[in-house]
Amino acid sequence: MKRMTKEENSWIFYDWASSAYSIIISTAVFPIFYKSAATNAGVSSANSTAYLGYTIAIATFILAMLGPILGTIADYKGFKKRFFTFFFVLGVTFTGLLAFIPSDQWLLLLIFYTIAAVGSAGANVFYDAFLVDVTNEERMNRISARGFSLGYIGSTIPFIVSIVIIILAQSGTIPISTTWASKIAFMITAIWWAVFTIPLFKNVHQKYYIEREPNLVASSFKRLGKTLFEIRKYKAVFIFLIAYFFYIDGIGTIITMSTAYGTDLGISSTNLLIILFVTQVVAAPFAILYGRLSERFTGKKMLYVGIIIYIFVCIYAYFLKTTLDFWILAMLVATSQGGIQALSRSYFAKLVPKEKANEFFGFYNIFGKFASIMGPLLVGATAQLTGNSNSGVFSLIILFIIGIVILARVPEPKTEVAANANNRSV
């Protein structure tokens, strides 16, 4: 593979920048900070958890509904970066503002968190769509994989710094409260995210677009309606989205419920944080490996490999008993988590018309967001019926089997077929 271009490197670095939000705000520090603030304000544990769940659902719904509409408008010349910038600024600003909200104002924390989440997810829609502008189809798998890999590595740096500050504050080694240590983590996240997005602003530009028309909003709705009406014309795209809906639901559920599952096994919060950190580190090189192997065996075949590994994860989870078992499970997840996400993004980018990438990535966003509903319900219902968390995780095997069966019906992009033929002749 030739050296990466300035545009490719700049695009990849946004994963490095934004992944700090994913681990510190979405996963680790903010949920604990919020729970503490709500408890101190007299909100019961059950209610505070429910309110956080409602908040995530609201943010998810907002983005899922806006994605295709804004994406369709952003396909016009000059609009993609404008929309990216708007959501990026929204996310960074409200992430930073979380540090200035009084710790007893739990409701205000949730409101600002919702706005930050909308900003983060919204920026990602247009960031993903920029993939078609920064590279060609032959390089998409590897560039997308490197983005995820760099994101895993980049997220660990501010995460480690934040956790060290919080631990030192808890032990009294530094003269600040744990509350302020958490707020410093929020500021670190916002600064990290903002600084490392500068290369994208300087070097990434919209190359594929639709020329502007009078009444852009009305014209965009007409184009969106036409796409839905002509769904047979994009049969491969929508079959892929259905397959993606199922298997990404299983992956997302395993990621989001892993902490609760580990707690049920009696694993301490400290050990869970360590496992989370190591998982991020291990996932980085495997994301790159998936990208390289996809160039030899095609992206679709590597998606099969990743889904099959997750099916094995579900089976192994059923027999899970010890902390060592949980470590093994986490490492198995790490081998395929980033690879599947990266290749799904690049595979989809190869299927869609480049000049309508934003519109289609809006649909990609919808299927990805609403996919986070079925899996948790399946796990919860199965666990309650059987009285066993292991059975709940095992039930996710259904989603992966459905996903891989539907994926088999998606035709290979022409570039994937050509690349595979060239590799066989070598």
TrEMBL record:
Key word Transmembrane helix present: yes
GO cellular component terms given for this protein: plasma membrane
Keywords attached to this entry: Membrane, Transmembrane, Transmembrane helix, Transport
Bilayer disposition of the protein: Multi-pass membrane protein
PROSITE patterns found in the cross-reference section: MFS (PS50850)
Stretch forming the signal peptide: none
Locations listed in the record: Cell membrane
InterPro entries the UniProt entry points to: Atg22-like, ATG22/LtaA_families, MFS_dom, MFS_trans_sf
Ranges where the Major facilitator superfamily (MFS) profile domain occurs: 1-414
Pfam families per the UniProt record, alphabetical: ATG22
Coarse class of the protein's main subcellular location: membrane
UniProt keyword annotation of 4Fe-4S present: no
GO MF entries: transmembrane transporter activity
Protein name according to UniProt: MFS transporter
Record organism: Metabacillus sediminilitoris
